[in-house]
């Protein structure tokens, strides 16, 4: 809010002021005193918001976090299980305000000095965030120097401040840090005591409209237009639209915007729901020839206590609300000729978890699970002494519904539907077989369209089936082993060792060897005793082993099909982006030979493509060479390359190049490895290296 020395002097002045309206207001406000010695420290988070998928360098989500001391930062999961702070937006916004003399526009009249308490409050309130929300990803075309057009993705982050202003940040994707910030515009909402914020995104006649829905602690709700000249293809409202204007002192707690299709009007519409006290306020927005039609009302009789959390399933428009007494309501919108109505039913968590208090709910992206934060409820009329917070998961879909949704999905990405695949995984692990209806439906899909998505789905089912038939490990997989892998180092030139050291090392090695032998013997016995068929004769175990071998063969066949399909894609990129006899770092000739090495594989598309590529290569082979001994690396295996001297290099599953470095990436489920892009790589190879795993759709780290 100003120079550090001047701020410190002003704080001392306000704290010791003889005017109680100044001193008490200053002392009781934690925004002014985040580190007051007599008060508990401001630790923890006020609010967090997840961006859409595809915003960080790995194609995953960014996390905007608002701390208790009013600092807004953006974090990314750049490496596996490691979160990194990319930017501090509070600091950047404060610098911008300082440079502009704390004025939103040049035409504003000059304000008072920092020593004036009202000015001190104004400078704090104009940069104290209340809420922040991400927009959807918008794609624009950027013209390069050679007149080529490339798609550039961007995302908007709206930040609502205490004084009602909204800062709209525009970030270029993938978001890497401060250099990815494109612009920052401030909008004056005119709402006093703002409490909540949400994006309004509406698509009408292939034109996307956007705006910001702002709710007040006093009750009003309205949509503000967002004028962004830099974002092409986006339109906004001409003027603000008031959805609810009564100052009825019912604070707006949460707002959700759900895109729906109106079956009677035969057009898309937008449903806005807001939790106000114990009621749900809804507003149906529909654009017709007459303009913007607004229908609104309240749903009453849901809860006896105020709503503490609300979430919505954007797949079907179902809304879930909860109050602190452990009751969750499911609201299903049903369209009528004019507007809509809600059917609601009660979900009693006490019947599932016992007596609990609920603090928040969230629905998974595809609506398979409802996550509930709970603590112990009252026992014999008494509150518990300690609070133990737990996250409980309630299934909202059956296995059959999840399987049908995966088969008819328009997303065609297993990673983005991981909550649905988790329901399917649980069912197969429990029953130890793939249901017949799912197997038949999947085979029909593969025969009719042949999309690699259904092949990946089949691979997922086979892997889970194989896992369900294996013996459960005797130890917990995540628990680290504390055994030291010690070996005896024999006498070598330049390394002296005494006889005592050798004897000690020999005894240690012998004891470890005996332990290993004993462990191996125990494993063999355990395998014999704990085999799945639970029969003691050898003949009972043989069918299980044959079944496992059969499933393993099916898994390898599906993996080989997916590998060949991706090889065809890589060869297509090579053909489109290379000149005659041009050497690329991709082992083109090796991939061609690998595809044609199997006599049983007869793909006319692949043969024609390989013929064109070989004609372009003009009898050149361009083999890869081992970086250690300079010998040729033959392409005999899709997973690794072995030179004549026995040096083994893993192959990148995205480009089939050998990863001859100590650092490489791996997919989230550890299916495959990929190399890092280098500055020498052309754009089309860098684009290939940005792809997900070809087996499980997971991002690569």
TrEMBL record:
GO terms for molecular function: histone acetyltransferase activity. GO terms for cellular component: transcription factor TFIIIC complex. Residues 398-475 form the DUF5921 domain. Residues 507-516 have a biased composition (Polar residues). Residues 7-397 form the Transcription factor IIIC 90kDa subunit N-terminal domain. It comes from the Eukaryota. One of its GO terms (biological process) is transcription initiation at RNA polymerase III promoter. InterPro entries: DUF5921, GTF3C4, TFIIIC_delta_N, TFIIIC_Znf, WD40_repeat_dom_sf. Residues 488-541 are annotated as: Disordered. Transmembrane segments: none annotated. Residues 618-668 form the Transcription factor IIIC putative zinc-finger domain. Pfam families: DUF5921, TFIIIC_delta, zf-TFIIIC. PANTHER family: GENERAL TRANSCRIPTION FACTOR 3C POLYPEPTIDE 4, GENERAL TRANSCRIPTION FACTOR 3C POLYPEPTIDE 4 FAMILY. This is TF3C4 factor. The gene is Gtf3c4.
